[in-house]
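Data availability excerpt. The first of two example chains:
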Amino acid sequence: MNSYLFLAGAIICEVIGTLLLPYSKNFTRVYPSVLLVVCYVVAFVFLSFAVREIPLTIVYATWCGVGIFLVSVLSYFLFGQTLSWQGMVGLVLIVVGVTLVNGFRGEPS
């Protein structure tokens, strides 16, 4: 169970780091840039703890899928960015894919 908390922490740190990219202004603003790098480093540290008990394929699929979904949704609210209906369908498919990967993973024999 702790591994899933580390995975959640990794996702949150990665999403925060990604959302700081516009604020860093191509790494010309010091504080957002430093916080961005710290968030990414912490995300990878948390990932390393998550893969101790969860297979790498599950960790990576979940990290990427949930991260893409959250960044897309939060960008709508924070930056006023929009998605076409095709983009929204794609986000739904990402959520379905992550659910399938996590729900129907085969245990190693």
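And the second chain:
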Amino acid sequence: MKQTLTRAFKAAFPKTVPIMTGFLFLGAAYGIYARNAGLPPAVPIIMAAAVFAGSMEFVLVDMMSAGAVFDPLGAFIMSIMVNARHLFYGISMLDKYKKCGKKRCYLIFGMCDESFSVNCTADIPEDVDSGWFYFFVTLLNQIYWVAGAAIGSLIGNFLAVEGLDFVMTALLTVLFVENLLKEKCHAGSAIGVCAAVLCLVIFGADGFMIPSMLLILLALTVFRKPIEERLQ
């Protein structure tokens, strides 16, 4: 068992190093933002561990700092709206996670954009247990995020955060390019880019995410057989 865990950790860790850099910076930005909003030092750290949904955590900071009465139903609906893309992530990971046993519960909770990108596209060595590989990728990414939030929370009273939003955009761009270089068939990536650009033009920057996901899902369903034939 120890050897299984060691091999999985050694395979997973290098895949998460680029994400570590991004998460430490953006997590720190989140922690600083929360402290500047007046939240106690422990709150952003607890939220980072318990919520672990970067965009939603920033929204929760705004909701909590506004001084309004907390609305659980409103927070639930807002969470679905902000993180609805994870519904599509979950669908695409059903086959990969179904044999992960009890680890599956944590993998579902800990899924984020970056963990999905790695776990969906990584070439896992044959001697590495895939379930534990997915687990360590997810766990390491959450540790990076919580650590970044803790750093930002501790120094938040001394700094103001501005201009770090580009970090995760740059990171996801790098992950996309890396996957593009490894692909045998670029049809899926082309569909994703075209759908995103089209929906961005139609719905604007604030509303293109969900329509583009639906369009990608529809296009991949329609062109599934030709894509699979080109991958063989």
